[in-house]
Amino acid sequence: MNQTTVERYMNERLVTINIRSTAKDIAKLMDKNNVSSVLITDDNNDIIGIFTERDIVRIISRDLQPDRIIAISPPLVYVDANTPMEQASDIMLKNKVRHLLVKDPVSKEIVGIITNTDFAKYLRNQSVSKGFESILEAATIEILKY
Residue 126: phi, psi to the nearest 5? Predict the structure, then answer.
């Protein structure tokens, strides 16, 4: 059985911002790009963290000032592009994260990101495929009767 990998569902468009940006700057960038996370880069443009919707909730719930706060979620979690979707889902659950950075298995460069939304698309496609297979099987049985 050929397993579907994260490469098929990952988003290759990575939104980044420098570490010196405030939470408010990042939230505006997230809104502008309609994304649930922004990758944080250092002054060398290397990815050092991720800022997510969860970070915004934490800042607001703790009455912090988003125009002064710089926040980064805990360590980044990576998977290779050839990782099966089911395995990637297990990695997310184990690490209690909603975003996985995707690396090229050879170059180890970050080539994308996979999120809960991408998993929802995968599950929808799985359901449609199984439904189609059932219809096709039923039609084949009917054809064979004749």
Answer: -65, -45
Distance CA 134, CA 126 (A): 12
Token digits of residue 18:
């420098």
From residue 67, alpha-carbon distances to 26, 50, 60, 81, 106 in Å are: 10, 18, 11, 36, 40
Strand-pairing partners, residue 11, are 113
pLDDT in tens, 36-82: 999 999 999 999 999 999 888 888 899 888 887 776 666 799 999 99
Largest CA distance in the chain: 74
Three-class DSSP category at 17: strand
Q: Is the CB of residue 18 less than 8 Å from the CB of residue 67?
A: no
pTM recorded for the entire structure: 0.80
